[in-house]
Amino acid sequence: MAPADARVGPAARSQEMEAMLGAFQLNITAMSLVSVVVGMFLISNSVGAAVIRRRVEIAILRASGASRGEIRRLFVGEAALEAVVGVALAIWLAPLLAGLDCRPGLAKRFLALHSGAH
């Protein structure tokens, strides 16, 4: 039998569970924000690499009369297109990947495979 001070009533257990869920939601929100920042960084690097790769094309566009604003709009449009494709893929793949994680025994098989245990 557990000591009297170790017994916890339903109300205390409910409060503890709510506190744990609140902390979990905060962690999920923080991870979501980190993933948004990482996504912005990846798109920024992609656009930067595109600018470097296309220096000659940019020079030709400028020589043929394109303004800096027009060229900037081309690259911003490209970044927006990449973002739309990324969001569409995320919306489509997220439920599929979440479903993989919920299959019974998947985590156990994965850990057994990667830990070297046979």
Structure description:
The protein is mainly alpha-helical. The protein has a domain at 44-115. The chain has 4 helices and no strands. It has helices at 10-53, 55-63, 68-101, 106-115. The radius of gyration is 25 Å and the shape is elongated. The protein starts with 9 loop residues before the first helix and ends with a helix.
Radius of gyration from CA coordinates:
25 Å
Strand segment count = 0
Main β-sheet, in a few words? none
SS-based structural class? mainly alpha
Poorly predicted tracts of residues:
none
Distance separating the two termini: 40 Å
Mean pLDDT: 82
Which overall shape is indicated by the principal axes computed on the Cα atoms? elongated
Strand proportion = under 5%
Give the number of helices. Answer: 4
Oligomer: single chain
Helices and strands, in order, run as HHHH
State the helicity in percent bands: over 70%
Helices and strands, with pairings:
Layout: H1 10-53, H2 55-63, H3 68-101, H4 106-115
Summary of the model, kept short:
By secondary structure, this protein is mainly alpha-helical.
